[in-house]
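Re: [help] complex structure
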Amino acid sequence: MKRFLGIVVALLIVGVAAYFWLNRTDASEGTAPVIVGAPAAADVLARGEYLTKAADCTACHTVPGSGKHFAGGVAFRLPFGTIYSSNITADADTGIGSWSDDDFVRAVREGIRKDGKRLYPAFPYTSYTQLSRPDVLAIKAYLSSLPKISQSTRPNDLGFPFNQRWAMGFWNAAFFKSQRFVADPSKSPQWNSGQYLATALGHCAECHTPRDVGFGLERRNELAGETLQGWRAYNITSDTAHGIGAWSDSDIASYLATGHADGRGSASGPMGEVVENSLQYLKPEDTAALVVYLRSVPAREGSDPISIDAHAAPVLASTDTAPGGDRTDANSAGLKLFEGACASCHQWNGKGQQTPYASLLGSRGVNDVSGTNVTQVILQGSKMRIDEHDVFMPAFAKAYSDTEVSTLANYVIAHFGNKVETVTPDVVAKRRQL
Amino acid sequence: MLSLSVNGESHSVDVPPDMPLLWVLRDVIGLTGTKFGCGIAQCGACTVHLDGQPVRSCVLAVGSIGSKAVTTIEAIGDTPSGQKIQQAWLDADVVQCGYCQSGQIMSATALLKRSPNPTDAEIDAAMSGNICRCATYVRIRAAIKQAATGKPEGMQTIVTAPEGAAS
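Output below.
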């Protein structure tokens, strides 16, 4: 009995030691590479504003259209419940006005809030852990300079055991490593800047890297693509068939800066928000650094890889104004729907009339047989403000039934992607819920 | 200041570049023949021509037009196809309430210009983006065919009294 107790105590000690070892904090301040839009010599508020945009804080902390900047309340519907983002304005009672610099840095880089409770990794401290202390404090200074908004953070709607914040300590032990950015001297300064922009600030991996059963990022599949909140975040590795390896530098830069690259597609959904809120504000030098880094990401096929048919036969057989080349068994109901609601802007040859954003040929969406993003765009439409222009497509969720949406999505995939499509009304019904 | 070519005339307009062309036409230049329908490129009422191509002016940012020539319903009758279409519209008595008709005529004219003798399928494809609440579709199709061939289509004729009826 004594021996048994001894083993139990020994295991406990090992377990506790492992827990603390795996949850150890990187004590270094951290250094950042050169970010052209936020030079070290610049005014702290100007740096903070640029870094806040590069880190896309607003996407999660501002309810679109509410005008309440950084007051939180955005809902994240995850498989285990709904999480609401917090108020990060400088309001003392409901925001972070009473937080010290150390409190804020710990929250951003370690995922532990002022009261010592753990944050959920819906907040990407898993990426922000790489940020340098001066960069985090510049963001704090900028947030503190904005109007305070009194708005209590809505409690999360999570069931047991997910509502136990302390349990995130174990998740962190397994999936999180507190670690500052360290420049790789074997790579160019531009690459290092790009890596900091992509990983520490832009947190691309949070959407584009597949997650495992524990919802941790699969590092060995970095940026190979994932589906979340009903949208596919595509493979952005250097894979030439399934990633962006075949894109030119200017294709990638154009997509990042404007949300569109000719013959490659247009951003919408969550990526549209990223371009609107964040990427369009990057200085061209920073965008170029991001391109250099993305180019270096090892090629991976990812799951459900998408193969682009850039010369889809039905599209080549069509004109601006008339369809052609559809399979003889093509669904005529889908054609009719496209004819009435879509053709006047997208055109039968997918060139896009009025705006290049409406072009379809060569995009991943129309080449994805699951029709995930095509369905979402039909249901929700698309809205993005780039520079001084609105990019807009109306939403059809209320106009069309599940059967009509699936029929239309299937026509689009068959016609513009030249693929055998798989969208069913049941799938559309599920995607409506997301 | 933006310079716009509308119906062969040059206009200088002081408007933000993201203002839709329809607003510029109606509220700034004063050409009110082009109508606002849905505002989201779904009904076709606001159709105008940009270098001869039918476009939805309610979602077309004026800043993206550049030097392309804008043609509206006010001047479409000056083109051979537009003249034929408008005459056929009158002969067939297409118009009911009329609100969508400037858009219908612009789409039909563009069709006739690129396809002088369109088939039913071509007419359906070209005109399906233009919605008519009064359901004038049958007459629209007949009028387009008449404009193409010059021959009256088998359209409704007004019968003063049934044949054989007591007078």
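Residues 2-75 of chain B form a domain with the Ubiquitin-like (UB roll) fold (CATH 3.10.20.30).
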